[in-house]
Each structure stands twice: as C-alpha cells, then as structure tokens.
C-alpha cells in the first residue's frame, strides 16, 4: 500500500505565530519561549510547513476558559498577569507579565483547531505549544496555567454535544490535570503512557487508577519504568488501541509531549521520535475508523529542543502522510 502525502493540504492545519511562542517562563527556563522556534526550524527544514495549511493563533474568551476553570482562578491569573509577580501554584509555575494573555492564546488556538475539525475545514491539526495537562480547574501546576486539553474536552462535550471524547497522552509525565478533572466522567476516554509516578512528577497515574463511579473502566494508565525504549512503547501501545476500539470515542486528542525521548533534561525515558510517529500514524487510522478522521495533537512537554523539534515534526509528518478513507476505497 502506498502512503501518498495528502494532496489537499487543507486536510492538516498547523498553528504557528509569535503570540503562541509567548507562552514560556523566560529565557533559560526549561519551558522557555524558544520552544516554538526550535520546532519551526525543523519543520521548515523538512518542508512540512509547505505541506500543511498554516493557521494563526487565536485567543480564548473567559466564557470558554470557564467551561473548565473556576471563576476565582481565572480572576487570579488575570490579576497576577498585571503584576507579573508570585506563583500561580505552590512554587513550580511562576506568574509573568502577560501570562493571562499567553495562556489564553494557547487555549484559544486549541479551540480554533477543535472548531475547524468539527466544521470539517480540516481533518487533523497540530498546535505545537499546547497540551498543558497538569493545570487543574482551580490552580496552575507543573508549568501549566490554563489546561487547554481540559477546555477542549469540555467544549467538545458541552458545545459540540459529543458523547465520548478520546484523550491519549504520551508525554513522560502523567496527565493528572486531565485525569482527575474527568476521573468520574464516563464521556472521557483517557489513555496515558508515562514514566512511573514513583520516579517522576506528578507521582500519579498508577495502573489501578481506572476511573471512578460510573466512569470505572474508561481510563487507562500505563506507567513505564525509567529508561523505557521504543520497543517497550510499541509493546504497550496495543493496549491503547484495544482500549479506544472498545470505547469508541468520537474525537481523538493526542498530547504528544517530547519529554519522553532519550536525553530530556528532566525525565528518564528513552524513546526516539519513532514512538511519536507510530502513535500519530495509528491514531490517524483509528480516527478514520472511529471518529470521521478527527484528530488533534497538542505539543505538550519536551525540554530538549532537538527532541521536541524532531518528535513534533514526526507527528506532523505522520498526519500529512497518513492515508485517508478516500485513499483506501
Ligand atoms: Zn511532561
């Protein structure tokens, strides 16, 4: 079977713009404002920017943020965005001047991608600076101010009236902000492969955490030992596919954090970009099978600039090259 590049580039949207790069905690910080540029250089080098449809960042309004976050927390971020002082949690996530606008841009950009996919303006999309999966409804956590994944899920359920939304997370860290917000919500089909919480922040995501109450069985946590490589990833990945097929989500979100590649400065995993390529390729196929092709990737973590550049490029390349239903008839 041949895998032609999707000839109509309107099928894959790629978000890029200065406003999106602004979400960062200063030069020299692991989550610095240079991350988007590092990815962009590599995407350009591979010609992927030419193959995708480029889209501008957008800003989320308070109503959209309020689908996931509490009014008190939104007001607090807004206030600290003016002073640029203090922390937005207990000491991981500092405020900076303009943090409200920057964090609202991450969310708004993801929501723009959700809308375009639901309106069939495109089939797949990548938002590189996004996937802030530690953010809680009422507080920041782990470099994550507003949780764009959470707002996207609430929007798909509340506004687009979907009955089941799939969320797949291959970042080295457990997506605790998403998991606990929807732990008892059976509409959220959650699968997360991450470094075992005994060795890494945030310490959660144990295999016995499968959802609560009516949502029991709708969550899959797959902790990996430190040093886990591509072979182990591929072995465990089958469980993600079986799980998604069983629960039939109508939209797939992928948090494709690149901090699970070998050489990240703050984690201990050893994937190559092949893991990300495989996940993206397989989710395109599953989206075609289950979700009318709808799949949205959010960049997530990744603190080694070379790693995030090649991992996110691999995801975009897979989105561009995956066969579509129309190729397969
Ligand atoms: Zn991470």
List the helices and strands and how they pair.
Layout: E1 12-15, H1 18-21, H2 35-45, H3 48-51, E2 53-55, H4 62-65, H5 71-83, H6 99-118, E3 124-127, H7 148-158, E4 165-169, H8 176-181, E5 188-195, E6 219-224, H9 230-247, E7 252-255, H10 273-290, E8 295-298, H11 305-321, H12 325-328
Zinc ion binds next to loops.
Overall radius of gyration = 18 Å
Small-molecule binders here are: zinc ion
- Report the mean per-residue pLDDT as an integer: 95
SSE sequence, one letter per element: EHHHEHHHEHEHEEHEHEHH
Strand percentage lies at 5-15%
Taking the sheet with the most strands, its summary is: 8 strands, parallel
Shape: globular
Number of strands: 8
So how many helices? 12
Low-confidence stretches: 1-7
The neighbouring-strand order within the major sheet is: 2-1-3-8-7-4-5-6
| Structural classification | alpha/beta
Distance between the termini: 12 Å
Helix content: 25-40%
